[in-house]
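User: Can you predict the 3D structure of Acyl-CoA dehydrogenase? Sequence below.
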Amino acid sequence: MTMTDPLELLDIAGLLSDEERQIQETVARFVADRVRPYVAEWFEEGTFPRELAPELGKLGVLGMHLDGYGCAGTSAVAYGLACLELEAGDSGLRSFVSVQGSLAMFSIWKYGSEEQKLEWLPRMAAGEAIGCFGLTEPDFGSDPANMRTRAVRDGDDWILTGTKMWITNGSIADIATVWAQTEDGIRGFLIPRGTPGFTTRTIKQKLSLRASITGELILDGVRLPDSARLPGARSLGAPLSCLNEARFGIIFGATGAARDALSSTLDYAKTRVQFDRPIAAFQLTQEKLANMAVDLNTAALLALHLGRLKDAGTLKPHQVSVGKLNNVRKALSIARECRTILGGSGITLEYSPLRHANNLESVLTYEGTSEIHTLVIGHTLTGHAAYR
Ligand code: TGC
Ligand code: FAD
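Assistant: Sure. Here are the predicted structure tokens for Acyl-CoA dehydrogenase:
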């Protein structure tokens, strides 16, 4: 007996519905045809091909779990499985889809006016308009409550000033959801590209998430009408609720990166011969492979459990933290361990594990660092918030 997909170990696919399996297979085929052959080149060049956006729209994965306005309206589990397959291609691809659907579109879908929804969501679902989500600032990442970006009233308008940092899709986005402090608390605003005073800069020299555009948003007295404000967003809870959506996709996505790293390593270990035997036949290699397969399968089961809770409408933010903390941590450790089995070959882009490991360094940090998710869980267990 031999296995190429390490997720076959516990027959997790047997827990999925026919529709969920079909959606997963469709996304996997797209990744095999349109991503895997090119992703090493994108990573090396530090680029994300914008022309992929309408293809992702056609595939139905942009705002996939939202209802109406041109969105597919699938279950949370189906959306998670799509994230898993996208991130098996590259975390940068899943990031694009997360930011578009779970952050930029979700913020409009949940907190926007009917006019804002009609103006942006159908085009964003089709991949004709790209969105970004600006919460983090140069001096405030884990602690967004203290953000410096300010929106002040000037007659009927708002004037926004500040800087947002590390913003996925920032410098290619047509529309930015930007969070700012007002005298009544944190509010969200939609800023279209080209608005006077609004500029962006691409962050270069990244060693991680290279097949993704990361940018800075600079707001220098940007004047906006009140109709640009997200009317339903009334506190920090609004952007944090958007993060739950994107963190959910990461719980599945990280297992995709780990699965891809492990399955390519299994193939390699079975064919690479040293001391006249395949390296897969050595006990030390098998211990690594077995431990990784156990971690991967338990991470996938956790993702599925949380997905079922989300579909039942009972998923809590601290449960999302359990999934994000565990699955990203495990995926990063799997990708690094896989690299050791590949020996010298593992340091090139010909094999995926080190690319995944480098990407997962960002995934460990964004959407709440592992320390922040640890403290969220600690808060839930003890009743004491230890952030401040
Ligand atoms: P705290 O006082 O605890 O909460 C303020 C208000 O927010 C509510 N809340 C939540 N609501 C929904 N979902 C959650 N997860 C929530 N967490 C808190 C809370 O109930 C409260 O509501 P109310 O009504 O009482 O006002 O806030 P705090 O300032 O003490 O901070 C808590 C902490 C540290 C957990 C939070 O600030 C946090 O999560 N920090 C991490 C920041 C972060 O994750 N940033 C991510 C930026 S976006 C990104 O990284 C995109 S990468 C995308 C990609 O490329 O894939
Ligand atoms: P800091 O908050 O300064 O943290 C530095 C270290 O201190 C971390 O280890 C952290 O865990 C630790 N720390 C902080 N506070 C505590 C505490 N209370 N207790 C213990 N340890 C603590 N943001 C967006 O808004 N939109 C995006 O689209 C986006 N995309 C991103 C893409 C990439 C590639 C990256 C790398 C980041 C992105 N981010 C985005 C920003 C990301 O969310 C932040 O980097 C993250 O929240 C951490 O903030 P920071 O980098 O300022 O680190």
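The chain is about 50% helix and 15% strand. Residues 237-382 form a domain with the Butyryl-CoA Dehydrogenase, subunit A; domain 3 fold (CATH 1.20.140.10).
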